UniProtKB/TrEMBL annotation:
UniProt-listed Pfam families: DUF2798
Transmembrane segments: 12-33, 45-68
Keyword annotations from UniProtKB, A to Z: Membrane, Transmembrane, Transmembrane helix
Organism for this UniProt entry: Rhizobium fabae
Superkingdom of the source species: Bacteria
Keyword Membrane tagged: yes
Protein's UniProt name: DUF2798 domain-containing protein
Amino acid sequence: MPKGKLPKRYNTIIMPLILSLLMTCVVSAINILRAQGLTAPALAMWPSAWALSWAIAFPVLLLVLPVVKRLTAIIVEM
């Protein structure tokens, strides 16, 4: 194992963690900007909207990822 890297077994947590952080960042920003426009109050509200979105999305992603992998395996030739 290269120095400074986590063992491969952590992939099942790290990948959904990064994916949920990035996706909730983008989606919450789009929703806040669509609802309020590019204003100071909207920008101030965005971090808490992102945190709430992520707190819901990460556990849901951990739950549904095995199902998504199985469905993908059915659809995509491996």
